[in-house]
Amino acid sequence: MAADIAYPVELVAPDISAYRRGNVGVDYVQTFDSGVAGPDAMINAVIHGNELCGAIAIDYLMRSDIRPARGKLTLAFVNPEAYLRFDPAAPGRSRFVDEDMNRVWTLERLDGPDNTVELRRARQLRPLYDRVDRLLDIHSMGTYSDPIMLIHGLEKERRLTREIGYPAMIACGAGHVQGLRLIEYAPFNDPATDRIACLVECGQHWAATSADVAIDTALHYLRALGMIDEATLAAHRRTDPVPEQTVADVTHGYAIRTDDFFFTQAFKGLERFAKAGAVIAVDGGEEIRTPYDDCILVMPNHRAVKGQRAFRLARLGGGSATD
Ligand SMILES: [Zn+2]
Fold this sequence. Notes:
alpha/beta; 14 strands; 2 domains; CATH 2.40.50.630; three-stranded antiparallel beta sheet; binds zinc ion; 7 helices
C-alpha cells in the first residue's frame, strides 16, 4: 500500500548550535540590517522540526554571507526544540514536541492559558511577526511532489508570489485545518495592510532536491524584495529558472471519515485530472471522485488516519501567473 513507501533520508540536518545566541535577544534568530531603507523581511525555517530543507537554506545564507543590500533581513529557526530532536532513524517523529506549531496562530491560543513548547516559542517570536512586513515560511511535504508556493489567496499575496517567480506552482486557499497557519496570523491575513506572508513546500522532507528548492526560493524571494541582485541569485541558484508559474485555487480539503481509507494510486501530488469523476480514493467503501474538470490533487497524505486531512483539491485558476 502507498502508506508503506519508505523515504530515504538524503539530507543531513545542519548543526545550528552556532546560531543559538542570535543577535536580537531571541535564541536562533538573527537580523541583518543594511542600514538602507527597504523591506523588513523574514525567512522562517523548521516551524515543523522534521522539515530539514529550511534549516539548510538558512545555514547556507549565513555561511555564504548573503546579506541584504537594503532593508532588514531576519532569519529564524522557528521550532528548534523539535528540530534538535531530529533522528534520521525515525525521521517523522520530530515534527513537533507538544503540538503542531503551524496551527496555533489564533489570538485565542496565543493569548490563552495553554502552555506547550510550541506556544511558548510562538509567544517568544510573536513580536517579530507583529513587526515584519514580508515573511517566507519554508516547509516540506510527505511525498515526492513538485514544490508548491501556498498562499491564502489575497491579491497582495498573489502579487508577491508572482514577483518571486518561483517555484512553478502557486496554490491559493484556506488551510482547511483546525487553528490557523502562521501565514494566516492576523497582521498578514488582512487585505487592508501591505504585510504579506507566503509558505513554500519544497518537496519531500528528506529528499536532496528539497534543499535546492528551499535555497532557490529564499534567493528568489530576496531578489524580488530588492535585497539581493540578479547576479547573486545567478551565482547561487541550484535549479533551473521557471519560465511560467501556474496558479491554482484550492477548493476542497478532504478529511478521512472511516478506518478504511485508501488512495487508488500512490499519488505524489500535483496530478491533474482532465475530467470530473476520476476516482482518487475510497473511504469506507465510498468512492471519492474529482468534482470538476482540470482538477489538481494537492499534497496527498498517505499517513493520514480517520479525522485527518488526506488531500486537497485545486482548480486551475486564471491560467498564467503573469496575467
Ligand atoms: Zn511543514
